[in-house]
Amino acid sequence: MRLIMNRVFIVFSTFAALVGLIFLGWILFTLFSKGLQGLSFDVFTKDLIEGGLRNVIVGQIMMSGIATLIGIPVGILAGIYLQEYGANSRSTEFLRDLSDVMMSAPSIVVGTFVYAIIVVPTGHTSGWAGVLALFILMVPIIVRTTDDMLNLVPIELREAGMAIGASKYHVTMNIVVRYAKAGILTGILLAFARVVGETAPLIYTSGSSEFWSTDLTGTFPSLTVSIYNLATMPDDQMVQLGWTGAFLLTTMVLIINLLGRYASNKKRSK
Amino acid sequence: MELFFRKIAQLSASLVFVILAATTLVLYLSAKPAIEEFGVKFLFESRWGEEEKVELPPAELSELESVEADKGASIGDDFIEDDDDFIMDDDFITDDDMESGDNKSRVVYGALVPIVGTVFSTLIAMLFSVPIAMGIAVFLSEIAPSAVAKPVGIAIELLASIPSIIYGMWGLFYFGPFIAGLFGGNTVSLLVAGLVLGIMVIPFMAALSRDAITTVPDMLKESAYAMGATKLEVIKDVVFPYARSGIIGSIILSFGRALGETMAVAFVIGGVYQFAGKITDPTNSIPVVLANSFAESSGLSLSVLFYLALILFVLSFIVIASAKVYFLRKK
To answer: Which of B160, B182, B168 is nearest to B121 (CA)?
Structure first.
């Protein structure tokens, strides 16, 4: 009886795993088959208004990129503070918990917040509002990975630095952060991958535009918001373009994830 | 330099707190008109954007009053502890009574439909995803040979990073029709939304649970095997108890993620302000209302949306806080 139960259990969990993988495989399959179908040179050279995706891809990367550029120093510094200066005081733990809460806060709520503080006063959607929303989403991720990675740095390294008379700043920047560099880089890549695929916080902060634009003070083209708009249109050609965008977006996110994985593996093998 | 660096690092760290506090404050301030207008009744009101004529024919008036009475009762039953927070509520009722003689009309908003939709779609998602994700986690860590477990494990982690809008699109064009063919009903419905959400959180939950399971020391498992325990017994009596807090934490985190998810649901829930009488009917959820209605809202209707966002924020805050409690217990 025990052995039969065991069999049943193994079969069940293998079956559950299969069901899950079948659905996930199905998603990837449709994504690739539909996405590749519409892939052409025009997609990269024409703007949305002419049936391409050039402006929205560039727009999405620009917004995520700027958010990352601002987010990196802030996030890393905050992580350093939590690990190196905050010690284990209660306020540090509190900030850690808050970062975790922010990390899992619904992204649409971040969008409403930015809408209230930027879009309402200025009266129109803008690229900067989108950047701010993405920035808010990614900072907690960078903070927590930096914090975790610095935690792995052996205390002896810090003591050795202190022992030769280096200041805390020097020890932190030249020894501790350098040691944890690969891990932090992975964290940044993963954070970027996370925000580049965000739609909800952009819908009414950056909006989306059909035209080429590099002016962040105005409504800004966004790939994800465009996918949302295109996919709900009745025109088949538009839907097809949406699939192509979805395919490109997923490919981009997966590649960045693989890069992040590679960065942390390289470090481990050293 | 030293001092400067320290200060600037401290500033960055407190920014996280500032953002969180500002979010709560701004949402509250923006929602204030709506909170004052509708009070806690907002949570139990099922109408959305309907004009409520205050001077009504007698029949409808009595109907309206009975509805109001019902709601009053439910507030009294369930939310006694909230009374002090919502003093405005009483004022509002008297306002309403005074107005009923006039020819005024006002637009009524209520959050009940999206709240119910959110809760049910999340519940369906959890019912669907928990067994499957646990199956995957156990399969990867205990059953599959490492030649299979490793690539599949990586694939699962990669799938967890796919943007949610992809799941929504797939749900709209492929999964919705598939489910409708299977169970009948609409291609956009509460059921489809719940299942798409479930599929979306499976990789996330499976990866986290697998991580929790792999922390179980081999020695514990080997001792159990040495006593003649079967795989099921080892997993049930050794692995799960040991990794329990991690597994429950992963479920709660996935729950939080499903609760606040917008894009995967926006495509497939239908976005109509009515209860799903059957599970295959379309309905609405809080994030979807937020995503769809912001552009065309202003004044009170905008404030109502902020009220909704605040509710969602508080809900997810509670969920994450409880996950933290579970994770902390492990340490």
So the answer is: B168
Collapsing DSSP states into helix, strand and coil, what is residue B136? helix
Give the model confidence (pLDDT) of B111-159 as tens digits: 778 888 888 889 999 999 999 999 899 888 888 888 888 888 888 888 8
Q: Sign of the CA dihedral A223, A224, A227, A229?
A: negative
Q: In this structure, how many other beta carbons lie within 10 angstroms of the beta carbon of residue B101?
A: 9
Short-list B81, B211, B113, B114, CA closest to B157:
B211
Question: Is the CB of residue B2 less than 8 Å from the CB of residue A167?
Answer: yes
Give the B window 244-263 contacts with A, CB below 8 Å.
253, 256-257, 259-263
Q: Whose CA is closest to A87, among A176, A147, A7, A166?
A: A147
pLDDT in tens, B70-121: 444 443 333 333 333 333 333 344 344 444 444 456 677 777 788 888 888 8
Task: Tell whether B159 is within 8 A of chain A (Cβ).
Answer: yes
Q: Choosing among A23, A168, A194, A261, which should be mutated to test the B contact, i.e. which has the most B CBs within 10 A?
A: A23
Interface of B with A in 69-128 (CB under 8 A): none
Give the chain B residue whose CA is nearest to the CA of A191.
B161
CB contact under 8 A, B163 and A2: no
Nearest to A184 by CA among A83, A40, A52, A43: A83
Task: Evaluate whether the domain defined by B113-293 bears CATH number 1.20.1250.20.
Answer: no
Distances (CA, A) of B41 to A72, B120, B318: 44, 20, 21
**Which superfamily is assigned to A43-269 in CATH?**
MetI-like (1.10.3720.10)
**Nearest CA to CA, how far is B297 from chain A (Å)?**
11
Three-state helix/strand/coil letters over B26-79? HHHHHHHHHHHHHHHHHHHCCCEEEEEECCCCHHHHHHHHHHHHHHHHHHHHHC
pTM above 0.90, yes or no: no
Residue A67 has pLDDT above 90, yes or no: yes
Cβ distance B12 to A74 less than 8 Å, yes or no, reads: yes
* Domain range list for chain A: 43-269
Cα separation, A140 vs A177, whole angstroms: 18
User: How many beta-carbon pairs below 8 A join chains A and B?
Assistant: 253
CA angle B188, B202, A243 (to 5 degrees): 50
Binary contact (A27, B15; C-beta < 8 A): no
Contacts of A27 in chain B (CB under 8 A): 162, 166-167, 170, 199
> ipTM for the complex?
0.86
Q: How far apart are CA A78 and CA A152, in angstroms?
A: 17
Cα gap B202→B200, rounded to integer Å: 6
Alpha-carbon distance A45 to nearest alpha carbon in chain B (angstroms): 24
| CA within 13 Å, CB half, B151 | 2
**Nearest-Cα residue of chain B relative to residue A73:** B12
Least confident of B30-34, B47-51, B78-82, B143-147: B78-82
User: Closest to B287 (Cβ–Cβ): which among A31, A108, A197?
Assistant: A108
Return residue ranges of chain B for CATH 1.10.3720.10.
113-293
